């Protein structure tokens, strides 16, 4: 090949290369936001309600407020409360009739397994890191501690004998967001006060207690170091320092029962279970906002809030009850809609995955 032929070949090669590059850049598909989104799993939001009388759980799409399905507990179970443990990808439901908890898959609600507890399963709560699930047993007067990952019992915490001797029974339970301590409310104690007992989460032993109002329930978050204790029979909410157990304030609210705080920690929502009302408190000032809202159905029992903090979900309990009510938050609740679910809706849970 002479020099002229070599030069001609080189020109053709460069031209072909440029054409190829141009064609590639012209015709190759450019990802669009829509096509990119298809490769990502969309967020799913669920509300689970334990229907104590019908023996099942109702599952609601929290984004659309539509009922997805109803799932029965095995062996004619009696569902009480539900807890989501994301590390185990499971929803645990307390079964009072069979002295155990039932684990459902978080997505399709197939039954994963069961874990034995004591007699009288009632309230339960899980550690934020998924390491422990505490289940109160108000017949045995104990609390069963479960490892949700292995679904094995780790130990048992006894309700203090002196409180049991006075008629006390473990009722509500809440695990500290710092994963060091658990708090159990003990109700039915003879006298003017019930109690909150603080336990070490390693040894499952009592490390302190505080006298509160009657029929106490519990809530806490990681925004502050306070434990909120609504006391139904004394019409108030105790505000307690979680470290020292000192009572910092007592907020008046009739029939205070179910209570929930969103992740932002700006507001506190509480149900007046006897008066059929929902109240709102400003956390910073610990003052009530406006007037309580009257609910469209009787016996508002337990509450939960979605991640966006713009919806409040309320279970309404009772022998003939079958309603879940939904409210817009702004920040006070405004009634939006209601769903007919199972019989005697009890515990309620929101989660996303």
Give me a quick take on this structure:
The chain has 353 residues and is mostly beta strands. 10% of the residues lie in helices and 49% in strands. The chain has helices spanning 3-27, 33-38, 161-165; strands at residues 45-51, 56-61, 66-72, 79-85, 90-95, 100-105, 111-116, 121-126, 133-137, 142-147, 152-158, 169-175, 181-187, 194-200, 206-212, 219-220, 226-231, 236-241, 247-252, 256-260, 267-272, 277-282, 287-288, 293-294, 300-305, 311-316, 323-329, 333-340, 345-352.
Word description of this protein:
The chain is built from three helices and 29 strands. The chain is mainly β and 353 residues long. Strands 20, 21, 22, 23 and 24 form a five-stranded antiparallel beta sheet that branches. A hairpin with a 5-residue loop joins β16 (219-220) and β17. The radius of gyration is 27 Å and the shape is globular. The model is unreliable at 1-39 (pLDDT under 50).
